[in-house]
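pinned: reference chain
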Amino acid sequence: MIVKKFVFIILFINVVFLNTAIAQKDIAVDNIIKKYPKSFNTTEKLAERIQKDFSSEYDKARAIFTWLALNMSYDTKTFLNPPNPKVFTFKNNSDRDKQIQDYEQEMIKKAFRTQRGVCEDFSRLYAHIGVLVGLKVQIIQGDAKTLLNDIGRKRLYSNHAWNIVKIDGKWCLVDVTWGEGYFDYSRKAAIKHFKPIYFDMDPKYFFAKHFPDSGNYLNFKLSKETYLNGPLIYDKMMEGDYEILSPESGVILAKEGEKLFFKIRNLSEFNNISCTNENGERFEISNLKEENNILEFEVLYKKNKGRFITFYRYQNALASFKIIAK
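pinned: its structure tokens
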């Protein structure tokens, strides 16, 4: 038993040191990028600067992410009033491909010049600049979960775009759009707020909020049902590396007055956990206890409190669940 504990401690220390080293590397790259001009005449000029300052694939991939996230702005007008899809008239497949390629290059130049865009523009730019600095990058389209009503919905939408980039032989997940900030639906406004967690994000978190059109990631089939029925998790959940162990679904069936049981790994601050409905009214939390770095507690369900419950730590949202009355 002592040997097992010792091995666990060694592994834990190694993980902590590894995460610290990666964080320090990211900060070093970000600090260099923050000194870059806010705009460049061409994507080639930005790529040349990145090539000059960074040699590793990881640093180049991070540098592109950080520059775009810091200097691009989300195009609220286009998001709220999307233009009609581009229609191509072509003679043959070769002509079609040429027209699509020319159109995408035009969109890349426009987004880079205006420094505004929606997710398609962010992902196109990331891929384009990535190729210029010698990286392998792909654009992925799929579904994104951002709202309470996304919990437990029945179908997928193709409403978002992101990237995967190959770094030292490993494909990494990148969402520059969400790294730039977020959209406040209550104010119908884009809020600029750099969120570095959306670079090289752990797949277990990434695919709780993203689902590719193909339904696959690196030949691994993802579960549509798990994604759609999963809880809505927020940035602080991922930043803290918290993991929901119970319930297994984000959709909970409950009776009036029933106590709902929750278990969350890596969460331990008893006095800083709260739970509210969609209107900000508090739920009663009871039977809090912690064991082996897992916080357990119960929430008393009341029908008049609405359909959703959200957990907070220090008033920062962690995760939301949908309650269906039995």
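why pinned: The CA atoms of residues 98 and 218 lie 28 Å apart. The radius of gyration is 22 Å.
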